[in-house]
Design goal:
The complex is a heterodimer. Chain A is α+β, with helices and mostly antiparallel strands. In chain A, the strands form four sheets. A six-stranded mixed β-sheet of chain A has the order 6-7-8-3-9-10, with helices on both faces. A five-stranded antiparallel β-sheet of chain A has the order 13-12-11-14-20. Chain A has a five-stranded antiparallel β-sheet with strand order 15-19-16-17-18, with no helix packed on it. By secondary structure, chain B is mainly α. Chain B has two domains: 44 residues, no CATH class; 235 residues, MetI-like (MetI-like fold). Helix content of chain B is 73%, strand content 3%. Chain B is built from 13 helices and two strands. The longest helix of chain B has 34 residues. The relative contact order of chain B is 0.13. Classes of the chains: A alpha+beta, B mainly alpha. Chains A and B meet through β6 and α2 of A and α8 and α9 of B. The complex binds adenosine-5'-diphosphate and magnesium ion (MG). Magnesium ion binds next to α1 of chain A.
C-alpha cells in the first residue's frame, strides 16, 4: 500500500530538442485509481515508465510510499506493470509466467503455488495454468498479464493501455473486471489510456494530458462539468463540445457571438468586451420554441443512433461558418434543410480565454 | 499470397535452371557417385589404375585402423571446441552490440569483416601471428616463459587451428545472434526487470531460452563448418601435423587419397563423411519444419 507523488517531473529523451514531459505534479492517494488520459503521443507511456523505472527521470522527483525512487531499479520500487502487448514470456506456461517474479523473490514453493492458484481462480484462469501464452485467446492473455501483476502483491499497479488490443465487447467486460479487482484489492493504480470511456468509468480521478502537460487533474465529473482548458473540454465528451467565438456582452449575463446572437452565459459585466470562446456540450442543447436566447439552426446532417439523434446544424446567428452538433432525444425526427430552434441553459455554457485557452470562472 | 511466375515457353524454365543443375551434377553428383563406386574397389595397379571389386573391404580396413579413430577423435575435439568457442564469443559480442547506442553500425561492420576473409587467408594470418620463429605472439609468449611451437607441440597446433577456425566463424554467428536478440520484444525484458530479475537472471531465464531456435540452427551450421569447411585452414597452418595431431577427417581424406594414393580407403572415408552430412542436414530440416518450439 502506498501513495505515489510526482513532483515537477520532466523527461527529455536523449537527442530530443524538447521535453516530452514538461513538468507534471500529481499526488495519488493510497488505494486511489488514477487514470492518465490523453491522445496518442502526448507522453502518457513515458510518464508511466518514469514511475516504473523504465525511463530515467530528467528532472523532478517521483516518490512511492514517501520514498524518492528516482535512482531505484524497477525491481526495488515495489510495483507491477501490465503492458499493452501483455509481454508474457512465450516460452513459459501460464503458471510459470505468474510465478516468475515470486521465484526470483525466493518465496517458498508452496506459497508460490497458493498465490498463483488463488490469482488464477480470481481471474478464471485455473484450467489454463499449463498452457503456453500462444495457446490462449487475447482476453485470456490479458488476464494472465493481470495475474502476473496481482500475485506479486505490489504497492502500486501500473497499466499501459492494457485493453487496447482487445475487441470492443471484451474490452467492456475486462474494464468492469479491472475496476472490480482494483476495488477489491485496494491497490494504488496508475492507468494509461486514450479511451475516454475507460477513463471516465475506471478512474477515481483523471489526469488529462496534452503534449506533456497535465491540463487538469480531477474526478471524472469535475473534468466533464468544469473542464480547465479548451483541450480538456474538447477531448472529454462525445461528440465533442461545440466552440463558438464571441465577446462578453455589456452588462454581462451573455456572450455576443460573431453572428450577432446573444448567448446567455453566467458571467459578470466587469469583463464586458473581452473576447471569449464559448463551449456548449451537444447534450445540453435542447429544442426550444419561443424561448428568448434560442437560436435558429439549419439541419445539415442527421445521425440517428436509436436512443439519441445527433443533429449537425449551421447556425448563422452564431457566426459566418458556425456549426453546432446537438444530441437530441431519439424521438426527434429532424430532416436535412429543416430549421430548428435550439437553446442551452446559461449555466451550461463554458467560457474560455482564447489566448491562454484556460477556463474563465 | 503465393507469387507464381508462368512461362509461355515450355523449355525456358529448364534452360534457366540448367546452369545450376549442371554445377550440381558435375561438382556434386558425379564425384559423389565416383566416391561411392571407388569405396568398394581397390586399386591393384597404381600405374594403369586397374582396380578390383572388394565389397566392403575398404570400410573394414578403415574401422580397424587406429589412425582413423585418432582422426575421428581429433575431429570431434576440434569441432566441439570450434563450435562452442565461436558461438560463445559471438553471443557475447551480440549481447554487447545489442546494448551499444553510439557507433553501433561501425562496431557491427568491424565484427562482420572476418567473414569476408577467405579461410586460407585467415589461416595464414594466424600462422604469421604464431609462427614459431618470427610470429609476434609466439615471440611474446616465449618472453613470458611459455615457448610456443605448433610445429612440434600437437596440443598447441590444435589450439591454433581451433582459434583460427573459430575466429573465422564468429562473424556469421554474431549476425544471427544479433538478429535473434533484436527480435525479442523489449517489453519482455522490461517485464522481467519489473518482476525483479537482474541482468544475468534476465539473460539466462528470458533471452537465452528465446534464442534457442537461433542457437540450435547455429549449432548445426557450426558443426558442419568445423567438420567440412576448415580444410583450407588446416591445410595452410598445420597440414594435419604434427604427427596427425590436427588430422581432421576431411583432411585425412585428402591426405590418404591424393598424397598416399590410397583411393579406395580415401573414398570409403568420404562416404562416411557423406553419411554425417546427410544426417546433419536431415536434423536441420526436421528442425526448421518446427521452428518455433516454445
Ligand atoms: N525511447 C524514445 N526515444 C525518443 N523519443 C521517444 C521515445 N519514446 C517515446 N518517444 C516520444 O515521446 C513522445 C511521447 O511518447 P509516448 O509516451 O509513448 O506517448 P503516448 O503513450 O501518450 O502515446 C512521442 O512523441 C514519442 O515519439
Ligand atoms: Mg503509449
Amino acid at each position: 500500500m502506498a501513495e505515489v507523488t510526482i513532483r515537477e517531473a520532466r523527461k527529455r529523451y536523449p537527442g530530443a530538442t524538447d521535453d516530452t514531459i514538461k513538468g507534471i505534479d500529481c499526488d495519488v492517494a493510497d488505494g486511489e485509481f488514477l487514470v492518465i488520459l490523453g491522445p496518442s503521443g502526448c507522453g502518457k507511456s513515458t510518464l508511466l515508465r518514469m514511475v516504473a523505472g523504465l525511463e530515467r527521470i530528467s528532472e523532478g522527483e517521483v516518490l512511492i510510499g514517501g520514498r524518492v525512487v528516482n535512482e531505484l531499479e524497477p525491481k526495488d520500487r515495489d510495483i507491477a506493470m501490465v503492458f499493452q502487448n501483455y509481454a508474457l514470456y512465450p516460452h513459459m506456461s501460464v503458471f510459470d509466467n505468474m510465478a516468475y517474479g515470486l521465484k526470483i523473490r525466493g518465496l517458498p514453493r508452496t506459497e508460490i503455488r497458493e498465490r498463483v492458484e488463488a490469482a488464477a481462480a480470481l481471474l478464471e484462469l485455473s484450467p489454463y495454468l499449463a498452457r503456453r501464452p500462444r495457446q490462449l485467446s487475447g482476453g485470456q492473455r490479458q488476464r494472465v498479464a493481470m495475474g502476473r501483476a496481482i500475485v506479486r502483491e505490489p504497492s502500486v499497479f501500473l497499466f499501459d493501455e492494457p485493453l487496447s488490443n482487445l475487441d470492443a465487447k471484451l474490452r467492456t467486460q475486462m474494464r468492469v473486471e479491472i475496476k472490480r479487482l482494483q476495488q477489491r484489492l485496494g491497490i494504488t493504480s496508475l492507468y494509461v489510456t486514450h479511451d475516454q470511456v475507460e477513463a471516465m468509468t475506471l478512474g477515481d480521478r483523471l489526469m488529462v494530458m496534452n503534449a506533456g502537460v497535465a491540463d487538469q487533474i480531477g474526478t471524472p465529473l469535475e473534468v466533464y462539468h468544469r473542464p480547465a482548458t479548451l483541450f480538456v473540454a474538447g477531448f472529454i465528451g462525445s461528440p465533442a463540445m461545440n466552440f463558438v467565438a464571441g465577446r462578453v456582452a455589456s452588462g454581462g449575463g451573455a456572450v455576443e457571438l460573431a453572428g450577432g446572437h446573444r448567448l446567455p452565459a453566467a458571467i459578470g459585466g466587469s469583463a464586458a468586451g473581452r473576447p471569449v470562446t464559448a463551449g456548449i456540450r451537444p447534450e445540453t442543447l435542447v429544442l426550444a420554441d419561443n424561448e428568448p436566447g434560442a437560436v435558429e439552426a439549419i439541419v445539415d446532417l442527421v445521425e440517428a443512433l436509436g436512443a439519441d439523434t445527433l443533429v449537425h446544424c449551421r447556425v448563422a446567428a452564431a457566426g459566418p461558418d458556425a456549426t453546432l452538433v446537438a444530441r437530441l432525444p431519439g424521438s426527434v425526427h429532424a430532416r436535412q434543410g429543416e430549421t430548428l430552434r435550439l437553446a442551452v441553459p446559461d449555466t451550461q455554457v463554458h467560457l474560455f480565454d482564447p489566448e491562454t485557452t484556460r477556463a474563465i470562472v | 499470397m503465393h507469387k507464381r511466375v508462368t512461362f509461355d515457353n515450355r523449355w525456358l524454365p529448364y534452360l534457366l535452371v540448367a546452369p545450376q543443375i549442371a554445377v550440381t551434377v558435375v561438382f556434386f553428383l558425379w564425384p559423389a557417385g565416383q566416391a561411392l563406386q571407388q569405396s568398394v574397389y581397390r586399386v591393384t595397379n597404381v600405374f594403369t589404375g586397374a582396380a578390383r571389386f572388394v565389397w566392403f573391404d575398404n570400410f573394414e580396413h578403415l574401422f580397424n585402423d587406429s589412425l582413423y579413430w585418432d582422426s575421428v577423435q581429433v575431429t570431434f575435439v576440434f569441432s566441439a571446441a570450434v563450435t562452442v568457442l565461436s558461438m560463445a564469443a559471438a553471443l557475447f559480442l551480440a549481447v554487447m552490440a545489442d546494448r551499444v547506442v553510439k557507433g553501433a553500425s561501425l562496431y557491427k561492420t568491424l565484427l562482420v569483416w572476418p567473414y569476408a576473409v577467405a579461410p586460407a587467408v585467415a589461416g595464414v594470418l594466424w600462422l604469421f601471428l604464431f609462427q614459431p620463429a618470427v610470429g609476434i605472439i609466439s615471440y611474446e609468449l616465449a618472453q613470458m616463459g611459455q615457448p610456443f611451437n605448433f610445429r612440434v607441440d600437437g596440443t598447441q597446433a590444435m589450439l591454433l587451428v581451433i582459434l583460427a577456425a573459430a575466429w573465422k566463424q564468429v562473424s556469421y554467428n554474431f549476425l544471427f545472434f544479433l538478429a535473434g536478440l533484436q527480435a525479442i520484444p523489449k517489453s519482455l525484458i522490461e517485464a522481467a526487470a519489473i518482476d525483479g530479475a537482474g541482468p544475468a537472471k534476465r539473460f539466462w531465464t528470458i533471452v537465452f531460452p528465446l534464442l534457442s531456435p537461433t542457437t540450435f540452427f547455429l549449432l548445426v551450421v557450426n558443426i558442419v563448418y568445423a567438420f567440412f569447411d576448415t580444410f583450407s585452414i588446416i591445410h595452410a597452418v598445420t597440414a594435419g601435423g604434427p604427427a596427425g595431431a590436427t588430422n581432421m577427417l576431411v583432411y585425412k581424406v585428402y591426405n590418404d587419397g591424393f598424397i598416399g594414393l590410397d583411393l579406395g580407403g580415401s573414398a570409403a572415408q568420404s562416404v562416411v563423411l557423406m553419411a554425417i552430412v546427410v544426417t546433419l542436414t536431415v536434423v536441420q530440416f526436421r528442425f526448421i519444419e518446427r521452428r518455433v518450439h516454445y
